[in-house]
Input
Amino acid sequence: MDPERKKVVERVAVSTFPDEVLERVLVQLKSHKDRSSVSLVCHSWYDAERFSRTHVFIANCYSVTPEIVSRRFPNIRSVSLKGKPRFSDFNLVPPNWGANIRSWLVMFAAKYPFLEELRLKRMTVTDESLEFLALSFPNFKALSLFSCDGFSTDGLAAIATHCKNLAELDIQENDLNDKSGSWLSCFPENFSSLEVLNFANLSNDVNFEALERLVSRCKSLKVLKVNRNITLEQLPRLLIRAPLLTELGTGSFLQEHPACQYSELENAFNKCMNLNTLSGLSEVTALSLPALYPACANLTFMNLSCAALQSGEFAKLLVHCPCLRRLWVLDTVEDKGLEAVGSNCPLLEELRVFPTDPFDEDTFHGVTESGFIAVSYGCRRLSYVLYFCRQMTNAAVATIVQNCPDFTHFRLCIMNPWQPDYQTNEPMDEAFCAVVKSCTKLQRLAVSGLLTDLTFEYIGKYAKNLETLSVAFAGSSDWGMQCVLGGCPKLRKLEIRDCPFGNAALLSGLDKYESMRSLWMSDCKVTMNGCRVLAKEMPRLNVEVIKVDGSNESQADKVYVYRSVAGPRRDAPPFVLTL
Amino acid sequence: MESKVAYDNELNLIKATELRLGLPGTDDREEQALFSARNNKRPLPDTSKECGSKKNSDARHVDNETAPPAKAQIVGWPPIRSYRKNNLQPKKSDQAEAAGIYLKVSMDGAPYLRKIDLGIYKGYPELLKALESMFKFTIGEYSEREGYKGSEYAPTYEDKDGDWMLVGDVPWDMFMSSCKRLRIMKGSEARGLGCGV
Output
């Protein structure tokens, strides 16, 4: 075929491919990364993609405006939004910083009246907003609030009262004003659509009879996570009414009368054939734990981070959980408990060990490097770890990553800052060298212990898939941060606190920040002038400085840099300076 | 002369083999300077949480630092979410069975039971006072011989063996670990318990 004719044929082929067909195809595409790629192919694909998208994920609520989102995506039914920088979870961001959902809700009400799902993380949500939400979207089905603040249980009452089609209510780890448990009683007596209910972190009593009736009539209930006030005597009454449960979060697991309701409890757990996730178990004792065993056979995720188990009873429990893939525990299980994990959980992929006494430096309880090593020998598929401990050695970490080279998330928190290898007294540089060298798939890394610039040299040199890096009390000079910024091509989130990185380091990333989601630096050596230079050179970045009372004029106490097409924030509080 | 040299040598030898905190090569003065410089970073113990993170001082280089950290709390460290701090259980005591001290309290004649957390009381006087105010009555004076004198009521408890005992007879710790529920007895039943049999 001659070249001219070939060109015509090709052009015709693309333009006669109907958009509707393309849209039908693209509707199947769920991953937002894939969708991003699709939208870049050409204009007609961009259009087809945007019309077919029903779920939008906005990782930084200030990177874009509601108007821009609604203009591009007219058919959205489900929104996920993240607001504050992650370090706000640790009180490093002052209150009233922003990330208020209100302006988004107003846009949604106007442009997405058929909105069904809203999932928020680290946003400020008021009771008025919750009421507005409840009244504005007749099809509303799912609300998930994770680490949000600004609301009270009154807001939840509004949701329960007005959302007639609610299928999911997931209230986790929020800083809310927990006034009373009466919100649960606001679900109307004919309401029966709930499939997911999680109020595990709320502290007030709910009316148990109301809960019992609710569970009874919600025949599709699959996820039920109650708070600590629900007793062990009450639990079976809920379980028998929820035969389809796949995820259970119990209340208190404390037995007050050893004899009587144990059999009722055992019977109830015997019937829980479908459980894959278990959590709660607050106040659990060795006496009450065995009642669980029948329900553990198919468990893939067990969250014991609110249950102060000792190693013996924990080991006995693990024998019954051969299918575990994800396990969260408190360090009360100690190294012995972790040895049991290594012995009993060959399929384990994720382990999180939380500290019971994080602020007590004198404690000799908890886990050490031995526990971690034991797990690594038994659980070769380990890919996600979050480990809080008070002592670690370079050799231990080297062994661990040699056993488990598939880590994608490695978060090690040696709780005493600047702590060296306790056996050799050396910095922990070699530990993280081993991590980044062995774990080529590493996406997320959190470092701790005594670290020099060498650690960051290694990270820059080897961590080619790294996307998120968290650094605290580490490094020796600007060079460390420069290595990371210069060396990690996939870096998206960098959060740093209390490190000796200054303006030279900050400015070395000039060309990089637009390809990243955000940078956080607090209590480092960056100055206001350095931030001004950054802001001037890179107008499409928002460079925000949070000033702390009583600090030096020229110091940039907390710096938050992020890319945005929305321009500078219009709702910034007085302590946030946009440069 | 010779003896001085020998003495100096000996001193050096002693110094070289002396056990002390710090990497080889650092001497005491350097260590002190580093330690105090590093302390600039930390909030003072009694101003810990409120004053926020400290700003950096320039005179600080963590490379050869091994002195133990000051016992002050740094804001947001370790990185634990606040809901988790609030939800953490109190440290368990040695006996697994002693854990969890919510108990039912019944009072003869009262329409419903109450629940108390034994763990918040440090001893019998506190507990009895709390019961008095909860149920609006007075408990008499305790004596080992005669039980509670001067009132119609006697506080009793059911112990691990299922027996009903008078509150106050055993040491507080023993009571905490053996008490299963409380009952405030009234009238003749109460008096019966008080008379040492």
